Amino acid sequence: MAKGILFVVSAPAGCGKDTILEKALAKEINLCYSVSATTRAMRAGETEGISYYFKTREEFEKMIADGELLEHTEYCGNYYGTPKQTVLETLELGQNVVLKIEIEGAENVKKLMPEAVLVFILPPSMQELDRRLHKRGTEDEETIAKRLKQAEKEISFAVNYDYVIVNDDLNKAVRDFVAIVDAESFRTNRNKEYIDLLKNFTVK
Questions:
Q1: Phi, psi angle pair for 7, to nearest 5°
Q2: Which member of 18, 161, 175, 192 has the greatest number of CB atoms within 10 A?
């Protein structure tokens, strides 16, 4: 059985990464989310082990010290990270895994696991990203301006990723992501064992 592939997806706020991944996973492709750990408080509607693994600060810092995280970061006073063992065990079972993380985390994962496939989702334009952030109606003008500034910084790192998807049309963006997952599974280096099995087959 071929080992699963680790996909890492990043995008500025408002680029639609959550929706793209939700629709891609609904297509029943061989892909599952990796559940992150966090020290932030559980919100209404969230479930332990499904939304996040909710940890105290002491528990999280012990995970860091014990090398139990594939990557981690601190944001707005809370830790966020990816438990390593669960990801590795899932990949060994032949299941593809997707991490939805920020640029710093993606870079750290790539250093530890060079075979990971990095995908960056781009907006069709900064004007469209501005429109989408305003349309959400959840943030004030100052916050939106900060998000746009942050988006410009994040987009400059897109050149370090293996693939980029422009989310101009949602359905096409979903198809593009699924195509990347499929294409990566067809790579020769991921199918060497099967090729060798056929090559060494002897007719009796």
A1: -110, 135
A2: 161
Amino acid type, 83: P
* Burial of residue 9, with CB atoms counted within 10 A of its CB: 0-12 exposed, 13-18 middle, 19 or more buried: buried
Instruction: Tally the C-alpha atoms within 13 A of residue 22's C-alpha that lie toward its C-beta.
Output: 5
For the residues 34-55, what does the mean pLDDT come to? Answer: 89
Q: How many CB atoms lie within 10 A of CB 102?
A: 16
Distances (CA, A) of 115 to 7, 18, 97, 100, 162: 9, 23, 13, 17, 11
Residue 47 has which token pair? 């479930």
d(CA 180, CA 164): 10
DSSP character at residue 106:
H
Residues present in the chain in total: 204
Cβ–Cβ < 8 Å for 32, 121: no
Q: What is the pLDDT of residues 129-164, one digit of tens each?
A: 999 999 987 788 888 898 899 899 999 999 999 999
Check residue 196 and give its pLDDT. 86
For 163-192, b/e burial (b = at least 16 CB within 10 A) is bebebeeeeebbbbbbebbeebeeeeeeee
Mean pLDDT value of segment 101-130: 93
9 in Cβ contact with 158 (< 8 Å): no
